[in-house]
């Protein structure tokens, strides 16, 4: 379970609710309306309303809580489903959208629009907008989605690095928490501690929880993850396993009254952090100092500077995992912990001995190995950062060896198909040569006043032609006229060539690019005695081959795409251009000989 994000959800969102706040914690929230009306998952309908008011409903008001926040539900496959909420009417009503897509900025803006419709009693417009979005297919990144005449949004790319100020979670986290506390919290997450983040504003609270986990990329927090705890789940804070939860400040005293052991508590309002251990001291000092220096630079405050600073730290800490990949031909790629821990720095070695037992690291390695052994490979900003920073000593020799082996394995079916097409083309050329020879023999018997030289000479044809010429009167013209083509029994040379290059005799779906290559070689083996008829046919043939050559370039390009998905587009194009050059050279050779 490398990532906990569902990358292929069925819909843009699953459920929309309007929930009324209970007067006391002993009562359950009331669902005022839902969309779609036929939503039938009763467990979700009972669970979601309880997360809509994650604070002491008897003591707080809207000005203390804030408006927008997010909670997370985990499904049976450990994938996260996000609940985007907006409090209205003095914190007494909550509008909630449930979706697998982490589109924080998009759904927060949509919630503002829905709240405006509700305040103006425009229920029809609200339902139309929800129905349009609910029925819309999952858009690709950077594509526009129209919700109404005046409302649309651009689908975000969830795989890119978060930027400031575009990413709301990272922006609030960077503004609310100072650099020292960010570093301590980062170290605590790398040690998989029990962590509680608290704030009086739900929007800031959930943003800080999501923003802190984003700094672990490409790894993901694998334990209990609840951005905001509702009152009925406060006992989760007593769990013996690692967790990362957010608790509204109005509920913090209740949490502290329980028996908490070795819990890290970050108070965002006061910017203070309580920790039972100095986890930051266990990290390599050079990595910490470099990260701290980058975070304090003014240029880091905007764009992807913050995310890239933590990405560089992750590459420095774990990038040498490439050196520990074990490749044995014919066997799956494995990971050797001993090789990974064997590092030149004693401080780094001490940290890596602890890191190999981290659940987030184990899941990361399993995800990488699964992609490698499935033949997919991977290329992301993390791997680029490892290469750019020189954090891998062998420059991924095992990975490069894997690429070479997988390419050969994936290429075998394509090469086999091309070889079949090549053999088929050879048979067609031989058949065509036999037909031409047979036709010339028939024409010799029918021509009383001329000697018609076959463009294809055979062992028997010279003597036979000499004997035939001795019995005929001398020709009255230098070159023979083009014979008339009868309706039956005559051969059309161009038609035969086109038929020989047809794909109708090859299994459907297989590539036949090699036909044109073999055709050129077969033409070179022919012994031509040019005549006017030959020149006519060859001119048509050369024109056809010139056009056909460019069509084959496209087929060769598609073949290279099937060889290996991990090849870069530039590499694929270079292979296609190389094949095109070979085709052009053979074509020119054929034209010269013609």
Automatic annotation (TrEMBL):
List each coiled-coil range: 415-442
UniProt record, GO biological process: endocytic recycling; endocytosis
> Where is each UDENN domain found?
13-375
* Any one Gene Ontology molecular-function term assigned to this protein's record: phosphatidylinositol phosphate binding
Location relative to the cell: Cytoplasmic vesicle, Clathrin-coated vesicle
- InterPro entries per the UniProt record, alphabetical: cDENN_dom, dDENN_dom, DENND1A/B/C, Tripartite_DENN, uDENN_dom
Could you tell me which PROSITE patterns the record lists for this protein? Answer: DENN
- Keywords, ordered alphabetically: Coiled coil, Cytoplasmic vesicle, Guanine-nucleotide releasing factor
GO cellular component labels: clathrin-coated vesicle; cytosol; nuclear speck
* UniProt keyword annotation of Coiled coil present: yes
Q: What is this protein called?
A: LOW QUALITY PROTEIN: DENN domain-containing protein 1B-like
Q: According to the entry, what is the taxonomic lineage of the organism?
A: Eukaryota, Metazoa, Chordata, Craniata, Vertebrata
- Quick one: which gene encodes this? LOC109066415
